[in-house]
Design goal:
111 residues, mainly beta, seven-stranded mixed β-sheet, four-stranded antiparallel β-sheet, 11 strands
Amino acid sequence: QVQLVESGGGLVQAGGSLRLSCAASGRAFSAYNMAWYRQLPGHGRDLVAGIMDGKTHYVDSVKGRFTLSKDNDKETLYLQMNNLKSEDTGVYYCYAGGGYWGQGTQVTVSS
């Protein structure tokens, strides 16, 4: 069993920054693929950024603005989000390989 707890969401003006955190527990954190997804009301969850097989991937819309990092000692995944845009608004979910999801954290960017 894996537990994922996200934090760091909130309301920010366009151009601002937020850092999301995903604290993991329950298994060997360093060994597994992890990612952040975003969901809008009435839509499915879309991949934003992930660390898969040791490589970091970003969707084109966040390249150059978002940075994904993983602290294996703290068992925490981070998503640093800079120069936020209104289209970044959504509920952000942390995902761990094997089908594990956190509860989500709301990010709202006002224009």
